[in-house]
Amino acid sequence: MSRLGTRSAVAFALLFAAPARGAPQDGAPKEVAPGAQESDDDRAALATLATSVARGKLGGATARELDDYLKDFPDSPLALLLHAEVRRRTGRYEEAAADVDHARRGCNEPALRRAFAVGAFELHFELGDSAACAADLDFGLDGTDPADDAALPLHARRLLLLLDLGKKKEANELYAVRFKDARKEAPPRVALEYGRALTALRDLDRAAQILVPVEKSLRDARAPDQVDALVLLARLYRWTRAQGDMIPALQAANDALEIDPQSIPMLVERARTRLLRWEEDTADEAASEALAINARHPDALSARAEVLLRDQRVSEGLAAAEAALRVNPRHGPSLAMRAAALWLLGKKDAANEGVAALEATHPRAGEDLCRFADTLNYLYRFEDAIPFYRRALAAEPEWTLSYVGLTRCLMNTGRHDEAVEAMQQFRARDRYRYALAENTEKVLRVLGGFVEVAHGNFIYVMHPLDSPLLVPLLDEWYGKAWPDLCRRYGLDPDRKIRVECFPHHPDFSVRTVGFTGFGALGVCFGDVFTLLSPRSQMRGDFCFDTTAVHELTHVVTLGLSKNKVPRWLTEGISVHEEHVWSSRADREMDIDLFNYFKSGEIVPLREMNRLFGGPKILFGYYQGGLLCDYLVGRYGEGVLTKMLQRFANDEEAPQVVQEVLGISAEELDRAFLVWLEETRVAPLKVQPTYTDAGRRRLLDRVNASAKPDPALLAQVAWAYHRADRPVDRDDFLQRALAADPREPSAHFLLGERALRSNRLDDARREYETGFAAGGEEFYALMQYARLIAREGSLLEGDPHRAPPQQGDANAPKPALDEAQRAQAERLLDLLERAKRCFPRYVREESPYFLRARLLERMGREVEALAELRAYCAINDSDASARRILVKKALERSDFEEADKYLLELRTIDPFDRQLWRDLARCEKELQRPADAIRMLTLALAIDPSTEAAYDSKRPREDLQADDAATRAQLLFDLADLYLSVGERARAQRSLDEARKLAPDDERAADLARRLETNGG
Description:
Elements: H1 40-54, H2 60-72, H3 77-89, H4 93-104, H5 110-127, H6 130-141, H7 152-164, H8 168-178, H9 188-200, H10 204-220, H11 225-239, H12 247-259, H13 264-276, H14 280-293, H15 298-310, H16 314-327, H17 332-344, H18 348-361, H19 366-378, H20 382-395, H21 401-412, H22 416-429, H23 435-448, E1 451-455, E2 458-462, H24 467-489, E3 497-502, H25 505-513, E4 522-524, E5 528-532, H26 544-561, H27 567-581, H28 590-598, H29 617-635, H30 638-648, H31 653-661, H32 665-681, H33 692-703, H34 710-722, H35 726-739, H36 744-756, H37 760-772, H38 778-792, H39 818-837, H40 847-857, H41 861-874, H42 879-891, H43 895-908, H44 913-925, H45 929-941, H46 956-980, H47 984-997, H48 1002-1012
Parallel strand pairs: 2-3, 3-5
Antiparallel strand pairs: 1-2, 4-5
């Protein structure tokens, strides 16, 4: 059965409150006549138990009291139905069914029949027994006037049943006959049934008009029925994408779960909403929490299956879907997830049969078919997803979200015009705000204003100001990288690749994932990928060439695997290929790796995909890259191709590892951890920052030891210190010092504690004590170095930028007196020791830059430049250090070194005409005139508005004058180069253009004289 009905967490409020004509305006319950053997006090006790169950108290005292009640009154229909409700909610379906059968025999009057029908329907609907549901409702209506408001709960549920069976026309007729226009004066519980019916019919505006005030009335009355109203509202908010981001749906879930923490319908709603927001981690938490209450609940199992499939744990997802179908063989979401799992396992015939069965069982299966297609879409199976989105729209045109998914798939397969048409269809049929759809519409318009440039295998789609520079650059890089990648991985290079590059980061983010704020630099969908332009808001913070090669590598891995490669491997290979492309490329996450390793949180292979759907996504890239580095180092480069080919055959990660490597996934995890420790962790002498789970592991080790090691106690103290829990920190710190007064890490912690209190002398003394005891740790050395530097004012200014005299080589250097020189030498030694503790540290205050600053002040320029070179070798995107090296190299006419760092600078920010002019100078001096000409040609292609120094607030005439002067010099340079290679006609054209811009420039006359001579 599909998940159309509300699994009311408070159904048994109705057992004691059957609404009737003339019911009190406040919705007070109407008493149901009890069995003769039950007293008023007994009924009151049972009503209290029903309220407890409605608030999620399913075990403990509630269960014991209910059992005791049934011992006294074993034939009480209401007690039996309440018992069945508890058993249903906890997954004991067979026992619940026995309770329902027993209760039925005692329901001999209309009110009890109605109460029975509601409870029995909830059970049978959850189990997918349509015939039993219909029989329950017929039994409940026996003896009740169908026009009575007391029958509304049964009519609403019959309407759910009709819709579930695909009988929409009959459902509408039932609503027209049995439900009147909503009355403002209707009691909340009467109005609630209108809201239930209208939500099921997807008359969402009218449903909201009813449910919002109903929920408020029930909240004011502190009625447990409020949960039922909130479940309906959450679903309504999800379906209407309330506020565009569905935050109201999540808020409704939070409100309901405060009342009933065991509400599985609401936990499932939370999971569904999170999935619609692409928040897999929190969706999984909600689904898992629901399954902890009822491990057999079909809705919870289907939600969990969807998470597992997105996580590419396909066999586990299939098992979850099949577990749901054993409970309810017609459960729509589970049928969809089972079919999706079969498709992902390569069993397409069985999957298609499953989809056909879903369509036959549930003619209104648009939502579930869309769920199937969304799963394929999420896993980059765009071509596969497209026909299923179309089938979803054929089955249920009003489930308009299918248009949005279809649009995204068409975009990701390069079918721009079809994507525009699909989005127009969506907008014509859906008027609700939806951030994903609105953003997609906007970015389609942005793409419509871009230019397309076809070069060889590549179609570049770019802003008109970007394409003149970036197309030649990408052509240069891809001309080297593409054939090399195809050769090494065995991919046929003859395919068309579409590259979309965005200068505006929000546009890139929306195009890529549908929402702004996505922190990546590029994303590949197959033969279509996106890039962030180097002149975007992240200008200067990344290398455009390694980003471009990273995404190009995805074309290879997705192509070889037929888009079936798990995320951790495709990202890992792309990060690995960054290292192949550029030796300086690095993700600079050594400290994150160190902290997670020490906390015991390196993610095992079976769960690695989860990293890419949560806050640790960047670490997912890094860990994936390291794993691929390990695999290539251990098994050779061909191992990656073998794995990709296995995934193309629909094998899952554990099977691929076993078949290709000959070991289990768990054995690979252990080997990888050993390699990480030997190569990345052991060489570092750094104080870890433990996660909460890491701290708990430390405490477990302390508790397991009769005499804990002092160093372990000190680590617990550090863990509490970083968690800002000073009382616990000081407790363990004192225990560590009591066990060993010389423990270095304890003294380093005392030093940091003193620094926080601005007790500088105490801090210095503690650091010195730790060093004297043999301690050597990066952060302690850096903190101590800052204390030493402060005394002599040796490192004032920005410590991770250029030395202060970088702008003027002749600027006088402040002289150091003898005492300062001695301190500087000591400081240099401390910083060198810090480098040995953490050789690749580039964050915040880099010891390389600090040493360069000091050496510059001491007049030791050669050593200072050596430090900057070492720094650039581990930091691929720092422009300031490279500018210093270029400036110094040009001053001493070292054109090889200047050329090297200029080429690196152009990968960081190529929109700089002076950079290209300097490059041309170097190429000319290195006897490479053709390259020099190319550099100047690219410089001339740069629009001045794209340069970092461009100030749009300056007067227009000033901007034009500056641009004319710059262009003139570039053209004069170009004319000179053309003359040097005998290209007289081109030299003349360049000179003529330059003269128009700067007619009085002395270079014009000189070049003209040279052109007039025979030899030029």
